[in-house]
Amino acid sequence: MGKVITTAREQLVNKRKNAKNIVIAVMDKYFPEYEKIYKNIFSEGSIELLKKYQKK
User: Fold this and answer.
1) Cβ-contact 35, 27 below 8 angstroms
2) pTM for this predicted structure
3) Is 27 in contact with 49 (CB distance < 8 Å)?
Protein backbone atom coordinates (compact mmCIF):
# COMPACT_ATOMS: atom_id res chain seq x y z
CA MET A 1 0.00 0.00 0.00
CA GLY A 2 2.87 2.39 0.78
CA LYS A 3 4.26 2.10 -2.75
CA VAL A 4 0.85 2.96 -4.24
CA ILE A 5 0.59 6.09 -2.08
CA THR A 6 4.13 7.12 -2.96
CA THR A 7 3.47 6.66 -6.68
CA ALA A 8 0.19 8.61 -6.46
CA ARG A 9 1.96 11.43 -4.61
CA GLU A 10 4.75 11.55 -7.21
CA GLN A 11 2.15 11.77 -9.97
CA LEU A 12 0.37 14.64 -8.21
CA VAL A 13 3.66 16.47 -7.63
CA ASN A 14 4.51 16.11 -11.32
CA LYS A 15 1.08 17.35 -12.40
CA ARG A 16 1.43 20.36 -10.09
CA LYS A 17 4.90 21.10 -11.46
CA ASN A 18 3.64 20.86 -15.04
CA ALA A 19 0.68 23.15 -14.28
CA LYS A 20 2.99 25.72 -12.69
CA ASN A 21 5.30 25.58 -15.72
CA ILE A 22 2.33 26.28 -18.00
CA VAL A 23 1.28 29.26 -15.87
CA ILE A 24 4.84 30.61 -15.90
CA ALA A 25 5.02 30.24 -19.70
CA VAL A 26 1.74 32.13 -20.17
CA MET A 27 2.80 34.87 -17.73
CA ASP A 28 6.16 35.20 -19.53
CA LYS A 29 4.36 35.56 -22.85
CA TYR A 30 1.77 38.16 -21.81
CA PHE A 31 3.50 39.85 -18.87
CA PRO A 32 7.26 39.43 -19.44
CA GLU A 33 8.17 41.94 -16.71
CA TYR A 34 5.93 40.37 -14.05
CA GLU A 35 8.65 38.26 -12.43
CA LYS A 36 10.74 41.39 -11.91
CA ILE A 37 7.99 42.62 -9.59
CA TYR A 38 7.09 39.27 -8.04
CA LYS A 39 9.97 36.80 -7.82
CA ASN A 40 7.44 34.11 -6.89
CA ILE A 41 4.40 34.55 -9.10
CA PHE A 42 2.54 32.07 -6.90
CA SER A 43 2.94 34.17 -3.75
CA GLU A 44 -0.15 35.38 -1.93
CA GLY A 45 0.34 39.00 -3.02
CA SER A 46 0.83 38.04 -6.65
CA ILE A 47 -2.28 35.86 -6.68
CA GLU A 48 -4.34 38.62 -5.06
CA LEU A 49 -3.16 41.13 -7.67
CA LEU A 50 -4.05 38.78 -10.51
CA LYS A 51 -7.46 38.09 -8.98
CA LYS A 52 -8.15 41.80 -8.56
CA TYR A 53 -7.56 42.55 -12.23
CA GLN A 54 -8.83 39.34 -13.80
CA LYS A 55 -11.06 39.62 -16.82
CA LYS A 56 -14.63 38.73 -15.94
Assistant:
1) yes
2) 0.80
3) no
